[in-house]
Amino acid sequence: MSNRMHLTLKVNGEAVETLAEPRELLIHVPRERPGITGPHIGCETSHCGACTVDMDGKSVKACTIFAAQAQG
Questions:
Q1: Which of 7, 47, 62, 72 is deepest in the core (most CB within 10 A)?
Q2: Model pTM?
Q3: Are 62 and 11 in contact (CB under 8 A)?
């Protein structure tokens, strides 16, 4: 049984509908969907900043937040 949630994320200015596990990190969601090549995975510990994305006008490290937090 899957606990996947339906999410709508804004990626490169466009709404993208996807499914994600409740505790799935944002860094993994776009990369696992067709046609989306970023953000990049660097250290996976939030030190390098390779995973930095813009969320509501703020720079956040996608390896440290859940995909559900980026809903909308």
A1: 62
A2: 0.80
A3: no
